[in-house]
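Re-run with default settings, no changes from the original entry. Doing this only to confirm the output is reproducible before filing.
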Amino acid sequence: MKILVLGSNGQLGSCLQDQFAYTKYDVIYASRNELDLSKLHDIKKYISKINPDIIINASAYSDVDSAEKNTEEAYLINDIAVKNIANICSEKDIWMIHVSTDYVFDGISNRPYKVNDKTSPRSVYGQSKLNGEISIANSSCKFLIIRTAWLFSEYGKNFVKTMLRLSSTHREISVVGDQIGSPTYTQDFARAIIATLKYLSEETKSGIYHYTGNPECTWAEFAQHIFNEAKQQNKIIKSPKIKIIDSSEYPTPVKRPLYSVLDTSLFESSFNYKGHNWSDGIKEVINLWNGKDFDSFS
């Protein structure tokens, strides 16, 4: 079984490389240097050369705020390129595993979103990702779409690394306390994706799934846990004080969902893999941090 991972230098792609190293799968990694998805004419040629059995699309235009200005590029990467990949997968009988987002929902629910709940994105990013999902479903390829949320790891830009960086320079940090979600350690998510592979066959039905860590929390609670763990590991002497604020006090170009919790029960029952407690992921990330800067992070 040959697997092609697209977006291999991103946060998820890097974690997939880490986790596939523990397996015997034949994996080819393609970063933007190997395949720039904005160059649509190169996609089929590259995939045909590799001739994989499965494509894991870990690439995306994921800058939520800049997508509002760079609309054309966001749709190009998150929808048009995805549509091209899906059509190639359909033509060549390749399974496609595609990563999507909680931003396809409106964020005003009072219960975890199920996979078949009505989608209603409120941003260019969310709409472009939803369009990509629709393009995959319309392509007739074999697919798994896996939505996730609040990813963090030792790689790339994410909330945990931001909080650790600020802890060395701020005595007080303002953190939003009215947005609720489920943090997801990206290494766990990579393991979850790999766990689905043994279930893929001609009899497997395509579908949409949700995978996140657990339990749910606010950003402020998440931040407090980060500082507590950093102090526990003696990486910081004193935790910054967290000032809890409302979303209205922290304006961003795109309004963030107030509720981003996803119902993961279908993923758990289908692939016998349950979401991990994100606090364990925080321990892993902080363990890799040298307490001063981010030389130990990629």
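The CA atoms of residues 64 and 236 lie 31 Å apart. The mean pLDDT is 96.
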